[in-house]
UniProtKB/TrEMBL annotation:
Keywords: Carboxypeptidase, Cell membrane, Cell shape, Cell wall biogenesis/degradation, Glycosyltransferase, Hydrolase, Membrane, Multifunctional enzyme, Peptidoglycan synthesis, Protease, Transferase, Transmembrane, Transmembrane helix
Membrane-crossing residue ranges in chain numbering: 12-33, 45-67
Protein name per the record: PBP1A family penicillin-binding protein
Domain of life: Bacteria
Glycosyl transferase family domain boundaries: 97-267
Pfam families named in the record: Transgly, Transpeptidase
Reaction it catalyzes: Preferential cleavage: (Ac)2-L-Lys-D-Ala-|-D-Ala. Also transpeptidation of peptidyl-alanyl moieties that are N-acyl substituents of D-alanine; [GlcNAc-(1->4)-Mur2Ac(oyl-L-Ala-gamma-D-Glu-L-Lys-D-Ala-D-Ala)](n)-di-trans,octa-cis-undecaprenyl diphosphate + beta-D-GlcNAc-(1->4)-Mur2Ac(oyl-L-Ala-gamma-D-Glu-L-Lys-D-Ala-D-Ala)-di-trans,octa-cis-undecaprenyl diphosphate = [GlcNAc-(1->4)-Mur2Ac(oyl-L-Ala-gamma-D-Glu-L-Lys-D-Ala-D-Ala)](n+1)-di-trans,octa-cis-undecaprenyl diphosphate + di-trans,octa-cis-undecaprenyl diphosphate + H(+)
SUPFAM superfamilies assigned to the protein according to its UniProt record, in alphabetical order: beta-lactamase/transpeptidase-like, Lysozyme-like
Penicillin-binding protein transpeptidase domain: residues covered: 363-618
Source organism: Loigolactobacillus zhaoyuanensis
């Protein structure tokens, strides 16, 4: 070690010796520069200016935070906490409520004094006397900030500050957020009494196991109201505020008892209990009893989740605002449709069998009003009790649409560019482009020529690709974009005719696209929310005006309806057709590798009447050789979609299509044309006979005239 230190000293000495000429040269200049700075600093009194600048910055920051506090709707905090955000359906009838952070609100006199004593002794000993913040608490937080090298580690917050954080701010641990918390707590203290503040805090606190508020927590853990809680139980409840998951007595009774006993000691220190009272309470066992019944406010979880997501992504609200501010959210929800769609998804008999390892086939569906784009029902999976704001396949999946893309990318732009519903399309196996892209029909059977309506109804691949090649890929890309689906460059090729996309689509997107056909060529803007009103009655979102975009002519829409009626009358969707109803739309599926066997990865039916569009997908979340759909699309998703439509359609207006299916029309036109030809033949024969008769009469008259001449 001594030799090592000696070596280090030698190295440092050598470096110093090497740099000595540099320091010798630079030294005088550095001293001159420093003396110049000192003269300027003293001459212009820069210390005072720096202090003035810091004071102005502090004043400006304080003014900004005061402004935030004054405009944070503190006056309505109590009303917002008491009022639950309510969801209304398309008839403005209450459909449920968003209670994720709302328990049963109880008044101050219905909360046991022991709960208040336990909480204040633990969380804020000077609560009843402090101005909403604690100087000692901030001093401790500052020391912690230094010790943890600039990281906010929590602590130092009074009950008032915690209320401000939970009800008005995010959970971020930053200096700015801590400063906002301080100013808001001061404002809250000005507006509300201490009794109001502790009541709001306890009603807004989280106690674990999905329970918010002191009243529901008392019922959940001890089977009694908050007013009936005794000293030991109060300390157990206060213990959960530190970490609801770690200290709740159901999951971790020993941890709860340990912290409970600590809190009982703090209550003695805070003169809320005598030593003998605390000792007696520590001897009590945990007598747990669960009498908590959660409300059924969150009745339609997939729909309500989608409403929250739209409010956040489209209208800039936060989850905390939506949950805690008592909004009235009006939606396009049709409760009857929603209940019927949910019932279909609850019927396992309409879904394919589970995989060998028990993994079930998943599914998702969206029902939409084609006139205004409002989502009337949605199911995002087969889980009957999905987690709050969990995975919603109806709006969030991106899966290949298969042949449901053909009407969007091929047949609509073809009609718009001069083709007719009965135009002859080429159905011959051929290759395209430098990569020799070669689509095939099912069974490798080809007809040579096929009318467009038959190619669509039978979901033939080769004619669809041939037609897209004829009209041009970019016309297809533009059409798909008009339908509300933007394709990346990598998907702008002939394969898009068959739905072979790298980035897929959701049922929500497909329902919005097909609503265009049912709405005479105009695509409505898809949405869940129609209006949001705050607790004071102010309209903060107004989406009641229907917005549409013209995608195709009404004539083209009618032709597309005619062709897609054939899908369910004689095409690939016959097994999905609901009994007694005319529906139009398209089926679709995507293939799995040949090594898997005979089956598909994704199966779709997107169908509609003039009253409702329903887009349904089924498949496995993760597809592999053990998890794929056996058979073709008619054998899987058809049953699900048929069940949904047979449940929903009896509740619609029953509006009829203004056209017949294309095959019937083509047959009628052919019969009419044949009749016209025969009529023309008969008319021609009659006219010829008349001409002959006329000619014969003229000839007889001429002969008689000649005879008369000779007779004279």
């Amino acid at each position: 070690m001594q030799n090592f230190l000696t070596s280090i000293r030698k190295i440092i000495g050598a470096i110093g010796h090497f740099l000595a000429p540099f320091f010798h040269f630079v030294g005088p200049y550095w001293l001159g520069f420093w003396h110049g700075v000192r003269r300027i600093w003293r001459r212009y009194l820069l210390t005072r200016w720096v202090l003035l600048g810091l004071m102005l910055i502090f004043l400006g920051f304080s003014t900004y935070l005061t402004f935030l506090a004054k405009t944070s709707d503190v006056e309505h905090l109590k009303a917002n906490l008491q009022t639950t955000t309510t969801i209304y359906d398309h008839d403005q009838q209450k459909a449920g409520s968003l209670y994720a952070q709302k328990g049963t609100y109880v008044s101050y006199n219905k909360i046991s004094p022991q709960i208040q004593n336990a909480v204040t002794s633990t969380e804020d000993r000077t609560f009843w006397t402090n101005p909403g913040f604690s100087i000692k608490g901030y001093a401790r937080a500052a020391v912690s900030y230094v010790i943890h090298h600039g990281q906010i580690s929590g602590g130092g917050s009074t009950l008032t500050q915690q209320l401000a954080k939970n009800a008005l701010l995010t959970q971020q641990q930053t200096l700015i957020r801590k400063a906002e918390e301080l100013f808001l707590s001061i404002e809250i203290t000005k507006v509300y009494s201490k009794q109001d503040i502790i009541t709001m805090y306890l009603n807004n606190a989280y106690f674990g196991n999905g329970v918010w508020g002191v009243q529901d927590a008392a019922e959940k853990y001890f089977g009694k109201s908050a007013a009936e809680i005794d000293t030991a139980e109060a300390a157990s409840m206060a213990a959960m505020l530190r970490s609801p998951s770690f200290y709740n007595p159901i999951d971790h009774p020993n941890y709860n008892i340990s912290r409970r006993n600590l809190i009982l000691g703090l209550m003695v220190d805070n003169d809320k209990l005598t030593t003998s009272q605390a000792t007696a309470a520590k001897q009590e066992a945990l007598n747990l009893q669960d009498n908590y019944n959660s409300t059924d406010g969150y009745r339609y979880p997939y729909y309500f989740d989608a409403v929250i997501n739209e409010a956040i992504s489209k209208y800039g609200l936060t989850e905390e605002e939506i949950m805690n501010k008592g909004y009235k959210i009006y939606t396009a929800l049709n409760q009857t449709y929603q209940q019927q769609m949910t019932a279909s998804f609850a019927d396992s008999s309409v879904f394919p069998a589970n995989a060998a390892d028990g993994t079930q086939v998943e599914g998702a569906s969206v029902a939409m009003d084609p006139q205004n784009g409002g989502v009337t029902a949605v199911v995002g999976g087969r889980n009957a009790t999905p987690v709050f704001r969990g995975y919603n396949r109806a709006t969030q999946i991106k899966r290949q649409p298969g042949s449901t893309m053909k009407p969007l990318a091929v047949y609509t732009p073809a009609l718009e560019n001069g083709y007719h519903y009965d135009s002859e399309l080429t159905d011959k196996k051929m290759s395209y482009g430098a990569n020799h892209y070669t689509p095939t029909d099912y069974g490798d059977n080809y007809q040579g020529k096929v009318p467009m309506y038959s190619a669509l109804a039978q979901s033939l691949n080769v004619p669809a690709v041939w037609l897209l090649d004829q009209i041009g890929v970019q016309k297809g890309v533009a059409a798909v974009k008009d339908f509300g689906i933007t394709l990346p460059k990598s998907d702008q090729n002939l394969a898009m005719a068959l739905g072979g996309l790298n980035i897929g689509v959701s049922p929500y997107q497909m329902a919005g696209a097909y609503a265009t056909f049912a709405n005479q060529g105009q695509r409505p803007t898809s949405h869940f929310i129609t209006k949001i009103v705050d607790a004071s009655g102010n309209v903060i979102v107004d989406n009641t005006e229907t917005k549409t975009k013209r995608v195709m002519s009404a004539k083209t829409a009618k032709e597309m309806n005619s062709m897609m009626l054939g899908v369910f009358d004689y095409g690939t969707g016959t097994s999905a057709k609901p009994s007694g109803y005319d529906v139009a739309g398209k089926t679709g599926s995507t293939e799995v590798p040949d090594s898997y066997g005979f089956g598909t990865k994704d199966q779709w039916v997107v169908g509609y009447t003039p009253d409702v569009v329903v887009a349904t997908w089924i498949g496995y979340d993760s597809t592999d050789s053990s998890h794929f759909l056996q058979g073709i699309s008619e054998e899987g998703v058809a049953k699900v979609w048929k069940s949904e439509m047979e449940n929903i359609l009896p509740n619609t207006d029953g509006t009829k299509f203004s056209t017949k299916d294309a095959k019937t029309r083509a047959s009628a036109e052919q019969t009419t044309n044949s009749a016209n030809v025969w009529d023309q033949v008969k008319n021609g024969a009659a006219k010829a006979k008349a001409n002959l008769d006329s000619a014969a009469g003229n000839a007889k008259s001429w002969v008689d005239s000649v005879k008369g001449l000779f007779g004279q």
